[in-house]
Amino acid sequence: xxxxxxxxxxxxxxxGIGFSVAAYSYQKFYKYFVLQKIxxxxxxxxxxxxxxxxxxxLALTSTAAATHWVERPEQAAVDAIVAGEEVGHYHLxxxxxxxxxxxxxxxxxxxxxxxxxxxxxxxxxxxxxRIRLGKALDYEFHEDYMGSYFSERGPRDTTALLDIERALxxxxxxxxxxxxxxxxxxxxxxxxxxxxxxDEDGKDLIELLQQRAEQWAAANLVTMVFNSDEYWIYExxxxxxxxxxxxxxxxxxxxxxxxxxxxxRLRYFNEQLDPGTVERVYDLVGGRxxxxxxxxKSQDMLxxxxxxxxxxxxxxLNQCWILGKDMDDDVMDQQKWATAAVVLATALVDKExxxxxxxxxxxxxxxxxxxxxxxxxxMTRSDFVRQLDRLNLFSITSSAQVRASSVPMHxxxxxxxxxxxxxxxxxxxxxxxxxxxxxxxxxxxxAKDLVFGxxxxxxxxxxxxxxxxxxxxxxxxxxxxxxxxxxxASVNHx
Length: 494
What we know:
By secondary structure, the protein is an alpha/beta fold. The chain starts with a helix and ends with a strand. 52% of the residues lie in helices and 14% in strands. Residues 77-222 form the Orc1-like AAA ATPase domain.
């Protein structure tokens, strides 16, 4: 019995030690493998670059000539940020849609073949954002533990925010290793930040990302780059920012815009444009890169320019046209918003008459603008202008200036304001809104005796020391009067 017991005990000890060593080795290997996968995600070559190259028919190599590219003044600064040479800060790129923010980032990544850079697109759903972050970092969010041997805890045991926090913890460890080996920080680019919802979950996500960006910028571990089309992201980040740098991307100046148009036209049609045509195109669409690219691809460029202006005008009218003096009171809330937008557009058009210049021979278009607080005063509301920015009707710059979202949109404003009877129609709408609001604040008292044809005879009675002045009211019956609706009163007047 003692021999059997000793043999069993020895077997149990050997099995326990074997399983413990195996489990410990597995967990160590697993954690090493996870970090190694994340480190590989920052090696040269990036799927984002491959997709961009396929979509635009471009060369993948970093040494290929960038004949497709129009060099912006900000490109050198973007190259330094993406290459990890600019340290100690995290960055917010802000500007209107189509100005070339994402293209500059992709071009900077192409020059270094994506070495040390990861890029992902934001999304309004936190679950999708979590998946995209995991794809960019090559991290699957699984977490094994020794309590269940060779078992993996799935990512659905927690929330999306906690998963994102775990992924950033792993990224920090990889960044520390790379910092010791290379001496440069990693770069993480989050594109389309404005797609995150402006609600509690969205605020929590932005706060989480900004806290990490602040910490990593101070330690020179990771440089975070946020890219947004909308002003509210800047407002949200500014509240807690100490190391944030803002880079505003605007339309190209005239000289560079005309050079871009010639470059695009030469690439697509191998055609050299005459200066007069280039001037007319710029006058209609300005220096917005996506407009210039679209125009350069068309056979009739001037027709395409007019179509762009018409599309912008239609978009504005569909979103916020005013209904005039005959509008129904059920659309009151929408018409308040629409009227505020039209009033602001009219004020921008009217301001041109007060400006010293609206066109510079070198810079090109100088669009009229108002300070954000002044625009809110003109609209008489402070909560509408940011929603108009989200719809790309107006633009709020990083210096808090409100103007039309583009040159074609401002030309659309001019056409709308110049229509016959527009200002009378706008005033009728404002008056109708005021009348509906007045009715909403009015309470009507109806005397049924008078409705049924009766009359009141009011007589001043003798005053008493106790009651003061008194009035007696007597009803004179009329047609339709009955005892059921009779009334009488005695009124005291102090």
